[in-house]
Amino acid sequence: MIRNSFLTAIAVAVLPVAAMAETALPVEIVTVHAAPNLIDHRFVGRIEAANSFPGAFRASGRITEITVETGDHVPAGSVIARLDATQATAAVAGAQAGLAAAEASLRQAEQARDRARNLLDRGAGTQSQLDAAEQAFLTAQAGHNQAAARLETTMQALEDTIIRTNNDLIVLDKLAQSGEIVGPGQEVLTLATDGRLEALFLSPDMAGLEAMRGVKIELQHGDGPPVETEITEISPVLTSSGTVEVRAEIPPDTAADWTIGNTVKGHVNAETTPVHTVPWTALSATRNGPAVWTVTPETMAVHLNLIVIESYDDAGIAVSEGLSDGMLVVGAGSQALYEGKIVTQAGENQ
To answer: Coiled coil: which residue ranges (predicted)?
Structure first.
């Protein structure tokens, strides 16, 4: 009797727990649908060279000449700056004289070797004489090679006293004057490839900015006609002023009409990859990234879905990956969920 009463008590106690486990949790459930991701934004910036780089000597010395000024357009192959090359020129002359002497010694040694070989062939010479002549030839040959290498080194040192353009360039800045002493690698001029310009905009760090990479942008420069191009770069880091650098290449066929440093306006009006928008209350954080709880309609059980956030604003979060049309997503109440939890739409009669 006692045993039966005990079992009955356990059964009565378990029934409410089981009922609680099966009770669906009321939450907000929204159905997501893809919508166009429209971008309409205006920028103001300036025109810059697309690839500026320093012009510097490879050697140290006193500058004797800088033939260009800021803003000059310089054709390829031009010498635009020189160092005092007195010592380098003398070194080249000495190396040339040394090479000429080494060539003469090599010719003499070669003739002596050939003569010793002929004498040995006729029986009028000895093997030791040929061996000595061969050794003298090898020594002269090594001396000639050393002299040639020395001349090449001194000629490179002479070349290092000038700055020569490899491409058509534009001078952005002149940082030194004739008579100054500079070290190797010290910037003397700031240069850029001629005809390659870009528009640089400083944008607030706003939602959806990253989605503009590769989209069309219309550039307006002064009273000239607008030019359509693409946004080529959006910096992943903020500037010291808290803005984001946005760059767009100016088409080379129109670059001649644009001036470095002038103001340029940009207008983006485009439609990018469609997105699914979910309420802020749907967002959950996991160690693998942002996620939302989705509902299986047949069972009303929830599952955690990782997502990729495209942008966000006051209306909600735009999701570019992780959701598909018609999915049910939990909004308010998502903080109380776990994998497999049964839910129901809040406000429905139970």
So the answer is: 92-122
